[in-house]
Amino acid sequence: MWTQAYKLGAPYNQIDDGDKLYLPPSALESLLNQSVTNNDRFNAASGSFAEHSYSGSQSAQLPSPITFEIRNVKTRNVVYGGVKEFSAEEGIVHLPQWMQKSLQLELGDHVAVRLKELPKGTWARLRPISSDYKEIMDYRAALESFLRANYNTLTAGEILDIKYGSNRYQFLVDDLKPEKAVCVTDTDIEIDIEPLVDDNTLAHIQAVPENQRSSTRTLIVGQTWSGTVESGQYTYLELNLENLNSNLELTLVCTEHDSGEYLNSSNFIVDVEKNPTLSLHSWADLSSNQEKSIIILLDELRGKQILYIGVHGAAHDQNSSFTITTKAIHSATLTQPVEGVLAQDSAQCENCGAWVPERTMVLHERFCLRNNVQCPWGCGAVFKKDSEELHNHWHCDKCDMRGTVFDKEKHETYFHQEKTCDCGFKTASMTVLAKHRKTECPMKLIICRYCRNLVPQENSPTTAQDILLGLYGHESYCGSRTIECQKCHKQIPIKDIQVHSKVHQIERQGRTLPPICSNVNCTRPASSNILKLCQNCFGPFWISTNDPGNVKLMQRVARKYHLQLTSGCGKQWCRNKFCATGNGQPKDATEAAQALIPLIQALQQELKASSSNPVLHLCVDESAARQLTVAEYLHELVGHRYSLAWCIKAVQTEKEDIYRAKEWVEDNAPLPK
């Protein structure tokens, strides 16, 4: 078995999330040479003198994936892993840091690496080390995605450090089957998650403050709630949207303090996802007004069950008190015009803009000009001369924002200081940053529609297909993995499977069957003859001479009917209602002649039509009779949803197996409209 000793090199960060190591190129060469030698020995021992190529030996002998036993030559500690690349320096091996700690290795220590083929894993029991593992919404998807990307092996006793979203969660590999070290590549593993209650878990739970461990307050539309928020912190509420059928208005009112002032810097943020922040929200009012209001249209809340409301504390040393009001409003309320009643003799003051009676305008203007002054920046606001309100009045010189000088610092911070997203996007506006992080940011966390894992969405779509499907970088890559179509057994990209299935559906709806024999008791396809019978049924009526007007043909059909009605066919399986054997009621010659006249007349009329559809009642062989019986039973079994012709086709295809025929007709027959 291949074994080599190497010195431990400096750790590579890119391999810390898995069990894969870097080996020198000579390791691959010696592995291939050994596989050739082993193959030669096998050929000699078996008496085989067949020539073989170097590449053939390689594919025949090297396992896939290549897995190794990694051992500390001093302590004899052992772990298992795969190989990332054969690109390390000669004599050097690079291991993940967790593997170094497990083997108790230091930089420069010697490591023994031995080729070891591990059995495929069938079962694993994982124990979460901390209590926050419940934040993972889909364990199967998270583990499958992480192991597929980073691991070739699992060893009992090792700790998996799984990245899920922006957080990491540790799981102890408690037990494995069929052995204590298994391969996890190209295999299905049953995984049991069993909570681990020990000192670490309890310590983690106790470390969470009591107020954070308590359940979040839940409101229903129409309720009012009062609370406080610490400076620079968040207070969150959940609003139940059940039975909401109109627009929603949320109001935040900051409470006055003993000094008579209110702390007007608290921010009002709302989102459909948990824990919205200043830089990550869908709706917000970041103004300095005492009363803040957010109106959300019903269409924006379709399909949502919970709305998450956050209040961000003001940037000062005191707690902020507030009251939140929730209420449903109708569309008419949003557009209701404000009507005022003005006297006919009213006039508008040029100084303050107020409407006053014309007879008192002179007195009003004298008083107004002596005591009031308009905003010097032209916003139209009116103040008392030399008042504190006028002195504190403020306009932003970079935008249209106005307020008091106390609003300036907050406004500058939120809307005119550069902010940088984790992805590198830069903007001066907190609102623009929040919109970026909720829409196009590559670091935005999404539940991938294909792997069902919480991952960054990555870059914006570039191809027409990805743009139409709304696929960002991760989903485009993940959706490019192929699966086998159950219909045509072709390998189809996952993101194309819906379109591919639609193609099969359209093809299915467009399927047609060749016309069936015009004999109602027959199941064979019609042939190209005037009666549109199959070859078996038309055989007795075939004539080689010219037959103008189909006179001789009608005579033969009449004789056939007369014989059936009088003597019958004598076949015990016959179900023909125009046969004495089938109906058990033989007729004499006169009665038979009277009975067949309408049949012959109808047939003659049908043959004269431009598009004839003749109907005949002839006796058939046992095979056709049996197929028709099974097809009629199948027709009843599927509730007449598919035509009898397709039921006949299913019975013929599946050789009269009723259960397989039912599956066939449900998979292949055009769906009923």
- The parts where pLDDT drops under 50 for at least 5 residues are 48-60, 199-215, 258-263
Q: If you average the pLDDT, what whole number results?
A: 86
Helix content: 25-40%
Annotation field: number of helices: 21
Structural class: alpha+beta
The Cα radius of gyration reads 42 Å
Strand content: 15-25%
Termini separation: 66 Å
Describe the structure.
- With 673 residues, the chain is α+β, with helices and mostly antiparallel strands.
- Among the domains are: 1-117, Ubiquitin fusion degradation protein UFD1, N-terminal domain (Barwin-like endoglucanases), CATH 2.40.40.50; 215-329, Jelly Rolls (Sandwich); 535-668, no CATH class.
- 31% of the residues lie in helices and 23% in strands.
- The chain contains 21 helices and 33 strands.
- β22 (346-348) and β23 (355-357) form a beta hairpin.
- α1 (25-46) crosses α2 and α19 (622-637) packs across α20.
- The chain is flat and about 125 Å long.
- The two termini are 66 Å apart.
Secondary structure layout plus pairing:
Elements: E1 3-8, E2 20-22, H1 25-46, H2 54-61, E3 67-72, E4 78-85, E5 92-93, H3 97-103, E6 110-115, E7 123-128, H4 139-150, E8 153-155, E9 159-164, E10 167-177, E11 181-183, E12 190-193, H5 199-207, H6 210-213, E13 217-220, E14 224-229, E15 234-240, E16 247-254, E17 267-271, E18 283-285, E19 291-296, E20 306-312, E21 320-329, H7 331-335, E22 346-348, E23 355-357, H8 361-371, E24 372-374, E25 382-384, H9 388-392, E26 393-395, E27 402-404, H10 405-415, E28 419-420, E29 426-427, H11 430-438, E30 445-447, E31 454-456, H12 464-469, H13 473-478, E32 482-484, E33 491-493, H14 497-509, H15 535-538, H16 551-566, H17 580-583, H18 589-608, H19 622-637, H20 644-653, H21 658-668
Parallel strand pairs: 1-5, 2-4, 7-12, 13-15
Antiparallel strand pairs: 1-6, 3-4, 3-6, 7-10, 8-11, 9-10, 14-21, 15-20, 16-19, 16-21, 17-18, 17-20, 22-23, 24-25, 26-27, 28-29, 30-31, 32-33
